[in-house]
Design a protein that fits this description.
heterotrimer, A alpha/beta (149), B alpha/beta (313), C mainly alpha (252), A: 149 residues, alpha/beta, Rossmann fold, C: 252 residues, two-stranded parallel sheet, 11 helices, extended
């Protein structure tokens, strides 16, 4: 289903570009790498930041690469803190129209907190790739139509 | 030589098995097909529906198993194992500052844990101070913050280092944490020969999983070997390294890869230490390992037993 | 150890190991299910003859364990030890046709990997070449595909899912004031820096640098620096200067 969505677009349109980011000192990159690869296989253009990025570096990369979506993969603990800092920094740079999504082992009770901070979607482990792809395509689509207006 | 099965027995068993496969099974399968086409362990090893002595054939009990406490140690490294002494119940703990973790350690000791295991926060794991810009928001989050000797002293308040053993999950800064521990022990009046515990100190796996690496591979290995060499000469009860498969497994490896890469790491370290002029029997008794235990039950058990036998060889 | 390195002492041949039950097998959905997973994994570790064991708390995948969760994890071990009888017989599964076959099979497959690593020049070289990293990443991806395609089952995650379970909100999570801790730790570090003997500290770090540059064993110098109240950041800073810093290439 998701492949149809991409193919039905006019071919002059570029692929949806996602920045997959690992922020801070967390060294667990299994999720980020698996997702990066899966998205690439699903037809996205993926930029993976590598480990130990600061919020500034991620925002700069997102702007520079002109990404459609920023995806942050966090393993434990600091996801609320990082989400807050990232959204703040994006606002500071006037780039807060770039939607932020988050993935990782996040306690269910924090989902609402993250949404309130401004994270568009939170993907828990085990979310099927199709579902992630669909949601990301929709988010990117919304943003692109807003930009064109 | 202690072959378990006689040729006659095996032949008869094989015949019975084949007959079962040809005459009994098909009716069962046609009425009630199996839940899956193929059943595999998490590593992808296909498992049959049934195992018999025919699968072990020329199995030599003494060569493969022997007795516990003797080569090849498949059945256990000690002759009495848990009948004499249970495994150490060692709960990985740490969060916030040394004050919080000190409380948690005391609670766990009171609840019956028999060994200590420290989890450090990310800044400590990569060796930066809490006021380093990289540490912002990460201090005390995934483990305890221990940037100075003062913190270590607070961490072990009311805990006598001569009476406990402590695992420290720390890699590039292992020399620092070990030094903190030794210095606190000294202050408590504990002699070096009573200091017991483990520093994880396994750089190779940091590049495969966990990834709290700091130095490039060659230097990282050099530092780790320094710790082992010094420890072997000064701390007779200390395990200066915990050759780890856990993180490799957590990064996505299969059980077979976990087993292979962990032992391969061990082999590399042994070579490095021998290259420094150490005698293998001098340091080998102080090498220790750390494995994952995953959900595919029998595969994990087989992995542990295979590991013992392989390392002994 | 015996055949490759000629070790003679029995203790040199011992593989002593600590086990931690698998963090990656635990999920935040219906987190109390993790108690069951951990119990089974702990049982495997005991049947496998480990010397030391950590059992994950059920909230471990997403938080530092609460006291409640940590105690359950510890009690899990105690139940295995004191109630099940599993610890009363040494290596009780030995002789099982399946277990012995599987033990042999795993050994054989692992040796093949080790041979491959030997052909690459040993593990240090293999790591520098990226071989084990790639193998692990492939395996991680394969597992993901298996779960996606419904060939691997995880209760509560891809089978027997439950939407928005009320009980989850009542699970007590560890709360602590991280900002306060951070402030306190920064305070203390500054205090340590201001109160120590500056000259002694300076000398200790210089000697450490010298030792690192010469290629000497750095341990005695680190111990000395620690006693001079050098901080972890300062000590590691000196070593980073000498040894360099590794930056992992961001491939995937």
């Amino acid at each position: 289903m998701s492949m149809e969505l991409t193919l039905s677009r006019p071919t002059t349109r570029r692929k949806v570009k996602v920045l997959v980011a690992k922020i801070g000192l967390d060294g667990h990159d299994r999720g980020a790498k698996v997702i990066a690869r899966a998205l690439r296989d699903a037809g996205f253009e993926v930029v993976y930041t590598g480990l130990r990025q600061t919020v500034d570096q991620v925002v700069a990369a997102a702007i520079q690469e002109d990404v459609d979506i920023i995806g942050v993969n966090q393993h434990e603990g600091s996801h609320v803190y990082i989400a807050r800092k990232l959204l703040e920094k994006l606002r500071e740079y006037g780039a807060d129209d770039i939607p932020v999504v988050m993935g990782g082992s996040i306690p269910v009770v924090d989902l609402d907190v993250l949404k309130n901070i401004g994270v568009r979607e939170v993907f828990l482990p085990g979310t099927p790739i199709n579902e992630i792809v669909d949601k990301l395509l929709r988010i990117a689509e919304e943003r692109r139509s807003r930009r064109e207006v | 030589m202690a072959k378990l099965y006689s040729r006659e027995a095996l032949e008869e068993i094989l015949r019975a098995y084949r007959e079962w496969e040809e005459n009994i099974l098909p009716q069962w399968l046609s009425r009630m097909p199996e839940r899956q086409e193929e059943f595999t362990t998490l590593s992808g090893i296909p498992v049959k529906r049934l195992y018999t002595p025919a699968d072990l054939k020329d199995y030599d009990y003494m060569e493969k198993l022997g007795v516990p406490g003797a080569y090849p140690f498949t059945r256990g490294i000690h002759a009495t194992m848990y009948r004499a002494r249970l495994w150490t119940m060692r709960m990985f703990s740490g969060y916030g500052g040394p004050e919080e973790t000190n409380e948690r350690l005391k609670m766990l000791i009171k609840a019956g844990e028999t060994g200590l295991s420290l989890a450090f926060d990310n800044p400590t794991l990569v060796g930066v101070d809490p006021d380093d810009p990289l540490a912002e928001g990460a201090v005390g989050v995934v483990g305890v913050s221990v940037p100075t000797l003062v913190d270590m002293e607070i961490l072990f308040r009311d805990i006598n280092l001569g009476e406990v053993t402590t695992n420290m999950t720390i890699n590039p800064p292992a020399p620092v944490l070990l030094s903190f521990y030794v210095a606190v022990a000294e202050k408590q009046g504990v002699s070096y020969d009573r200091i017991g515990g483990t520093t994880q100190n396994d750089p190779l796996k940091e590049f495969i999983g966990q990834k709290t690496h700091v130095f490039p591979p060659e230097a990282a290995v050099k530092v780790a070997m320094d710790v082992i060499e010094w420890s072997v000469k000064n701390l007779p009860k200390w395990n200066p390294i915990s050759i780890s498969g856990y993180h490799i497994r957590e990064a996505g490896a299969t059980a077979v890869q976990e087993l292979a890469f962990t032992l391969a790491d061990g082999i590399e370290y042994v070579r490095q230490l021998i290259a420094r002029g150490l005698d293998v029997d001098e340091f080998a008794p102080r090498l220790s390992f750390f494995f994952d235990s995953h959900i595919n039950f029998f595969e994990e058990i087989a992995k542990f037993r295979a590991a013992r036998r392989m390392w002994a060889r | 150890m015996k055949e490759w390195f000629g070790a003679k002492k029995p203790r040199s041949l011992w593989l002593r190991f600590h086990v931690q039950t698998a963090g990656c097998s635990l999920y935040p959905q219906q987190p109390w299910l993790n108690i069951v997973r951990t119990a089974l994994e702990a049982l495997a570790a005991v049947l496998g003859g480990c010397q030391s064991l950590h059992t994950n708390a059920f909230d471990e995948p997403f938080r530092v364990p609460s006291e409640f969760a940590a105690k359950i994890a510890l009690r899990t071990q105690q139940i295995i030890a004191y109630e099940t009888g599993v610890a009363d017989v040494i290596d009780p599964l030995a002789g099982s046709y399946f277990v012995e076959w599987l033990t042999d099979e795993m050994e054989e497959r692992a040796w093949r990997y080790i041979e491959r690593i030997e052909s690459l020049g040993g593990m240090l070289e293999a790591v520098k070449k990226g071989y084990p990293q790639r193998e692990v990443e492939e395996a991680a991806y394969r597992f993901q595909r298996e779960v996606e395609e419904g060939r691997r089952f995880i209760v509560g995650v891809n089978i027997f899912k439950e939407e928005d379970v009320e009980e989850v909100r009542r699970v007590p999570l560890l709360e602590f004031n991280q900002e306060e801790v951070e402030r306190r730790q920064k305070e203390r570090v500054r205090k340590v820096r201001s109160m120590r003997d500056e000259a002694r500290w300076r000398r200790a770090l210089d000697e450490l640098r010298g030792a690192a540059e010469r290629g000497d064993n750095i341990m005695p110098y680190v111990l000395n620096a620690v006693k001079a109240y050098a901080t972890i950041g300062e000590i590691m800073g000196v070593l980073k200067d000498v040894y360099g810093t590794y930056v992992e290439p961001p491939y995937y």
